[in-house]
Amino acid sequence: MNYSVMDIVIILIAMVIAFVVCSKVLKSTEISMAIAGVVAVIFTAAHGWTNEPVKIIVEGLFTNLDLAMTFFFATLFINIYSSSGAMTAVTRSVVSHVNNKWLLLALMAVLMIIPGAISGAGSVSVFVLGGIVYSIVRFMGLSDKKASAFVFVFAIMGAAAPPVNLWTMLMTAQANMPYVGFELLLIIPIVIAGAFTIIYLGWGSKRTPKEEILATMPETDAKLQGVGGLVRILLPLVALIVMFVLTLVIPFSFPVLGLPLMFVICAVIAIICNPKKMSVKDYYKILTGTMDQAFSLIATVLSIGIMQNAMAASGVKGLIGTAFVLLPFIWIYILILIVGPFAQGAMSYGSAIVIGTPLIFMFNTAGMNTTVVVAAMSLMFPIGDCLPPSRIVGRVTLETTGYEGSYMSFLKQIFLPCLVLGLLALLMLVKPAWFAFLA
Amino acid sequence: MTLTEAIIHYTYFIMAAVMGLLLLRNFFKREKKLGLVYDIVYIYCVIPFLLRVLYIK
User: Fold this and answer.
1) What confidence score (pLDDT) does residue A389 get?
2) B chain contacts of residue A257, beta-carbon cutoff 8 Å
3) Low-confidence residues of chain B, pLDDT below 50?
4) Does residue A211 come out as left (phi exceeding 0), alpha (psi in the -120 to 50 range) or beta?
């Protein structure tokens, strides 16, 4: 087969044109991504690089199938959990007991980070705690835009935080490096950027008086009060955390459940703990409502899968990776904060493999500390979870919080916290020796 | 452990079937995102679930 760089560049341009035109004409990001993928596959077949173009498209639909299932069942769990009134009870309890705004914001930030840190996915943080955290930080006087930004920023920090950082895991696996020594390298920049985010978003906001907040919230069910109520509220969440932790602590003795099944188990526990009498019809309504709610996300991740597979088959994925890593060091430093997050937006975790791994080898040949380099890049990629074409965590956040402003206004709000995180990571990348003692 | 893994394996087939059926239901009976474009999106989104349930992939 005769591959030429120019042919691949033409395919890339055709994909971009197809995506932009379809987005304008069809007004659907999902189908635009799928069409961009189909265009790449058509070009690939026309060049004679594949005999099975349909197989590439259908296999692409399976690339992110597990992610689609996670999104659906996580949303289902949260909808069932909320229907019991547990969310309201938690919010009422936190608002009643904690009076200091900054303490509460810090507490919410830590809470948001935990599910992402354990599962490795920022969207899980948003699904599990995004709704509760959003309501509580809104009561702390943050506008809807700032509260949505709060949820998003700490969700991506959760994804980047140890013990599970998927970008680091993918890069270390490919570069034959041990997944050891990343804890402090990842936590310290997250703590600094997190503190900045809390101050930046919380500055100038005035907490609504406790009585006013409680008056606007529905009363807690009598069965959700006291010790019995606490068990009903906490059991589904605790079960989720226990399953996460057991998977990490005893991986060889604990069955591989996978995130979708974990959420199904928690949904069953939430049904058992629900003090309200709900019929099968009520749960069926929740089920169909969840599909309505999660459909655009499911369609997005499946469409991205088609695009990712088409990019791999056509050579576009490799072209982007090699074009970037062949640049001189100075240009890599200048462009990494743009290329890294945008690669994440286009290729999701594939960004770590396409761009991250070749860079590890490059920095290694220059005698730099690769552990610091990997940690630095692992802090940059999650920023792209709000960028097109996928914008997965960004979209999940806005759908969870119900933010009605434009997506651009949301991006402007998260820009500064993301920039601080990105600059800290860039400093680590430029001067890895300064941070080697943390490895 | 093998039995547990088999149970998990088949549970995922059931979960995929549930999602596939819900997508099919929404394809015929939905209130939001009407129109031909989303008909197409719904149909290609059903494909992986259908193939999984039919044990083809």
Assistant:
1) 80
2) 8
3) none
4) alpha
pLDDT at B1: 66
Distance from C-alpha of B18 to C-alpha of A294, rounded to nearest angstrom: 14
pLDDT value, residue A30: 86
HSE-CB at A283 with a 13 A cutoff on CA atoms is: 15
The pLDDT of residue A371: 95
Please state the domain count of chain A: 1
Domain ranges of chain B: 2-53
pLDDT of B31? 81
Check if A62 contacts B (Cβ < 8 Å).
yes
Please provide the size of chain A in residues.
439
Which residue of chain B is at minimal alpha-carbon distance from A287? B22
- Chain A residue with CA closest to B30: the answer is A292
- Extract the residue ranges of chain A whose pLDDT is less than 50: none
- Where in the sequence is the domain holding A112, given as residue range(s)? 73-161+181-293
Tokens of A22: 């379809």
> Which of A34, A72, A261 lies at the smallest CB-CB distance from B11?
A261
Tell me if A260 and B15 make a contact (CB, 8 A cut-off): yes
Write the residue in A30, A255, A288 that is nearest to B5 by C-beta. A255
With respect to residue A111, please indicate whether it lies within any of the assigned structural domains.
yes
Angle between helices A407-430 and A144-160 (to 10 degrees): 30
Is position A336 within any domain? no
Q: Work out the number of other CB atoms within 10 angstroms of the CB of residue A69.
A: 26
Give the residue from chain A lying closest to B42, CA to CA: A299
Q: Is A254 within 8 Å of chain B by CB?
A: no
Reading the block at residue A391, the tokens are: 């914008």
pTM to 2 decimals?
A: 0.82
- Interface mutation vs chain B, best among A291, A306, A399, most B CBs within 10 Å: A291
